[in-house]
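Write out structure tokens for Probable beta-glucosidase G.
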Amino acid sequence: MLSRRWLAIVGIMPLAFAALSTVGSPPASAASCPWVRSTAPVPQRVAQVLAQMSQDQKISLLHGTGGAFVGNTPAIPSLCVPGMGLEDGPAGVGEGLGGVTQLPAPVAAAATWDTAAERQYGAVVGSEEGGKGAAVDLGPTVNIIRDPRWGRAFESMSEDPYLDGKLAAAEIVGVQNTGVLAQVKHLGVYNQETNRNTPSDNAIIDARTEQEIYLPQFQAAVQEGAASSVMCAYSTVNGAYACQNPTMLNSALRGQFGFAGYVTSDWGGTHSTAASANAGMDQEMPGGDFFGNALATAVQNGQVSSATLNTMVGRILTEMFTFGLFDNAPHGSPSATVTSAAHVATARAIAEEGTVLLRNNNVLPWNTSGTRSIAVIGTDASTAPQTAGGGSAAVQSSGTVTPLQGITNRAGAGVSVQYAPGDTSSGITQAANLARTSSAAVVFVSYNESEGGDRSGIDLTSAQNQLITSVAAANPNTVVVLNTGSAVTMPWVNSVAAVLESWYPGQEDGNAIAALLFGDVNPSGKLPVTFPRSLADVPASTAAQWPGTNGTVQYSEGLNVGYRWYQAKNVTPLFPFGFGLSYTTFGFSGLQVSGPDAHGVSTVTATVTNTGTRAGSEVAQLYVGAPAAAGEPPSQLKGFTRVTLQPGASTTVSFPLTMRDLAHWDNGWTTSTGTYRIMVGDTSANPQLSGTLAVTSTTTGNTVTVTNPQGMSSPVGTAVSLPLQATGQTLTWSATGLPAGLGINGSAGVISGTATTPGTTTVTVTATDGTGASGSTTFVWTATSGGGGHFGPIVAGVSAGLCVDVRSASSANGTPVQIYQCNGTNAQTWTVAGGGTLQALGKCMDVTGAGTANGTKVQLWDCNGTGAQVWQPQPNGSLRNPNSGRCLDDPSASTANSTQLQIWDCNGTAAQRWTLP
């Protein structure tokens, strides 16, 4: 995204640390905003606000304005709508806001291969964003690292979509559990900076490659991480800008992945009004060139329908309600100090865990008894530590510990630590001389990477390579520490004793690397990207592939991205994907492959043993090779798990494999029959264990599908009840992540109780049928402070802007019950009363004449306790009248005002789905 310095170019001048702007009339009283601290379902609260909004107010939420953050939406005081700040956050709070923690770069966190560490990473980001008053964290970045030359490789996670997706989902959960919305980015085939945001960055890619390599991590972010929002990219994909690409936004993101949140443009990435709105983009940032007055005009002339406008606004309001922003508006301050000792400790732990030991010729770890003098060499060790990358992922450190400081402090008074910058020709000679007289030498080198530009190659500077070569010639115990955002070549690798890839390690750089060098921490990082021997070996090695020619970028390597390419072409990389050494050793044994069972699930197990003399952590990695007929790469990551073991200890790791895990894209996901190779080990290259899995049929047993509630928000101290919906027979239910005070009825599938503590949690609900088949869904639940509650509208399934209404607000017997534009009046305020009745204006919703025939109209009538006035909510959202056995129905799924409702055979369509108060 564009950083703050570019805002003036697009017409928005930031108001440094100013309050968010406002739209509309003076602040409303609490009584006039009944949706605040309401116990009503989120969709109903959204409908109430929409019904009261003017078109100008709606449009104000669909584009950015000036304010304290890199992105801002205005408050609407008359409707109690809070303003929202959107702030950079792939590696922590950005835009130069001080008092924050500079975490390791995202690629360093990815090198942990540790979902728990990623959740902690997200928790720090979310906590500090919230403390600054931001409502939305602009991260994580999950684009595939297609090529090591990409300027934002450090800001993303991996070359593999499975690893990328699992880690991204974990980070999103960490962020959103703090009550801050995560905006995963950048949806689209966006993998280079050259020509970005222009038609000349036109990625030409086939559907299979897009589905298998460039989209799965976004699916995981949405379905496993419950991401609230998505940022569309600068890229052009097959001729269409990503932010106006209906295939990407409507078909894949919303249709295929079931995403219910909202889509924001990258900063300056909007190129149209009607095309973007109709393609599925909801919000323009940072200004309103296309979604301001131009959008109002487009609605007026019919290029964008009013229903589309309401849908766009409704998506944003839904997430605001889900995260409790109406009940507890963001209250932090951009000037606040939000870093803490705990956050700094997390930064250090992730820097340690994500550092990858690439080579060790028995020189590490150092011990103070045998290492009496240490030469610390390179400006990266002292005066210019490369702790972070540039662009929107740049984070201001609250206190950097340099490698020289960290090593000196750890070595203690008994060890001589001397420094040489080695940054000139004479300086290289001085550095070599210092190394020659020292017990050990460590050279720090780096490659500065940033958003906005790609690397021209993957070599370190000639001066840095010469520095390493000279020092290694002077001291055989030379260690090299790399601070890079992705792969670099190492022409000197066989001349040095050890190599560590420390990435951009954040502000705890020195403490982390010292702990690793001295063995206080055992290295356990694994490469999330492949390190090639030369630029000629990379998959996108031609100009047509990178950076493109004649306005197009050809993704002609297809599925063979990263390690898939090296295996398919029998090219041996310098260091393979998944590789990383330790100060101890591990063994793998006992591979067992069972299944598939009746539900298409296979299980792979293996034993991991610490065969060395130190405690340490290992990452067991599962790779699968499909039958040749499937046309897949030789092997693909399908599971990983991190284990920590004492010397001599063993543990069993287990990986489930579903038919979907084995599937490939062929105009839809399909699984081939045949023999699959199953491989488990500590790297993608020649895993230690191998076996086979025979798939003779892809027909599976029952499928259980759980409907996603999208999001829940409920006040602390107020009883709630949420019936869950799923397909399947004799289901039993379980849930994780529920707010304190809430529980789930395992047989009825109802979440109920009274939340006791404010906060946001990510809830996963699982339904299992009698044969063992299960399904799950993930959503966000926010318990807000305060109480109260009210009854409100019944929202129609055919449109969030339509409500069940008493015609002309008349309380006369026989008045038609109809659908009408939601307006928040008493004619649309329904009470779910005892006995299953629905009451408005003091009377009951009634089937005319207690009729039972299809098409019998629904009216208002004196409450009389008969079966004609009983309505039973069904799991699919319909309202069944038991007297007739039929359901409340909107004839022909009409969206026309004043359409009178009827009863009809229950069919589960949108015409029979209703959201109750």
